[in-house]
Write a structure and sequence with these properties.
The chain has 176 residues and is of the alpha+beta class. The protein has one domain. 30% of the residues lie in helices and 11% in strands. The chain has 5 helices and 4 strands. The protein has a 4-stranded antiparallel β-sheet. α2 crosses α5. The longest helix is centred in the N-terminal third of the chain and has 14 residues. The radius of gyration is 16 Å and the shape is globular.
């Protein structure tokens, strides 16, 4: 039997990363969902603190409103150009839930979507939540230190937010 108090020490292995009834990821999501949310400004401040600790410039306004169309709602090529990124995938993004405004998932690369057939979509659906499609946060990763990559920074941001008691519904997503 899973002891929910010990889940903070577990990152599910790949074979346990899939979703099924009573799985670790659903249990942890329920715990996170019961935590209080914080204002966007607190999240932005914490992420910028972390990025600056890596000598990556802070982002004053990471809020991006998706384009009103079914496909290609985000223009990753323009982010690359505007922020002078080496690769259009050099971003970390956050999506939020609609009802309680929790961070639903943290990701890296150019694959932001509001689907429910993904792991994070299944998790928030299990909680009776939906995606807030009105905006996402995108943090361009300009000047990534040579010894790191975008996935390392994604993991660092997620773990830094967790260490600062910021709930993330898909608690483990940034570690895969």
């Amino acid at each position: 039997m899973i002891n929910a108090d010990n889940l903070k020490w577990i990152i599910p292995s790949k074979e346990h990363s899939t979703i099924s009834e009573n799985c670790i990821r659903y249990i942890k999501a329920g715990q996170q969902y019961n935590m209080n949310t914080v204002d966007d400004e607190v999240i932005i401040q914490l992420i910028n603190q972390y990025l600056c600790s890596l000598c990556i410039p802070a982002v004053s306004n990471p809020k991006v409103i998706p384009k009103a169309r079914e496909l290609r709602r985000f223009d990753y090529a323009s982010y690359k150009k505007i922020y002078n990124l080496k690769d259009k995938r050099d971003i970390v993004w956050l999506k939020f839930t609609k009802k309680k405004h929790h961070i639903g998932v943290i990701g890296a690369s150019c694959d932001i979507n509001f689907n429910y057939d993904t792991t994070s979509g299944k998790i928030i659906s299990h909680l009776g939540e939906s995606w807030d499609e009105s905006y996402v946060f995108i943090f361009p990763l300009y000047n990534i230190p040579e010894e790191l990559n975008r996935s390392d920074i994604e993991s660092g941001i997620g773990n830094y937010l967790i260490a600062n008691n910021i709930p993330i519904i898909d608690f483990y997503s940034h570690n895969y």
